[in-house]
């Protein structure tokens, strides 16, 4: 009788591919990960799971939690329920500091609706700052929206025309005036709208997550090269906005369509370099290393490859750049942008 194949993303599945960490002493900030108790068929990803990944061989010194609607309050005013996520993460970060021995959760990017009236938005931001206990760095109100979400494993729920909404732009501008960042997540066909947003709010630092998520499933399957060509032009336009910085990672989500989440074995670092290197090198050429930061997007990308393999791939690609440029992408840019 055949042994059942381990489910993608489980530790048993990931353990089938073991790589020795390259350049293990290099200091790294992982500026993009999530935490949650449980989510659908995704198991819990809490401090123990995070430390198992960040402590697997690479020198991950600090991390930044990015909102994922975890730990929300279940009662009280609707506009303040997302403050529960700040409380949730602050508690985990405090436990990490007290326990010692693992990467420090050094920053928190929360969520709120940036279209709400300014007085109410200021109230939420103040509550997030208080609840995050020194970790609050900014807001992600994602714009991801696709006309055929039924094809996506992780469909976005952004409002139609969000980036052009006057109230939304006012909220993003307020973040900049208060010294906070704006993170986003959207799909490749929304990149031009994001560039227009960036031009409209030059006083706010905007963080482009996951390369603008080039899709590769459903109606986008079989169009990778055509989508890449348009994506290249869009990234060039976005990079001309000096207030935008880019997170390089998050391309191993199921919806990117590389198919690693459907295989018997996880991806190896060499496969990531071969399949995705052109995205990384183009973004670095457009933004410059001082405006780029590598990101794991774990545990989401855990459905495709182990944590050690992701960072090995980054180190293999980064070998083409100078020592200062490498330090920027692994550590310095994230440290500066998120004031770590």
UniProtKB/TrEMBL annotation:
Alphabetized Gene3D superfamilies for the sequence: Metal-dependent hydrolases
Q: Where is the Amidohydrolase-related domain?
A: 29-339
Keyword check for Metal-binding, yes or no. no
Record GO terms (molecular function): hydrolase activity
One Pfam family of this protein, by short name? Answer: Amidohydro_2
What keywords would UniProt list here? Answer: Hydrolase
Belongs to which family?
Answer: Belongs to the metallo-dependent hydrolases superfamily.
Task: State the protein's name.
Answer: Amidohydrolase
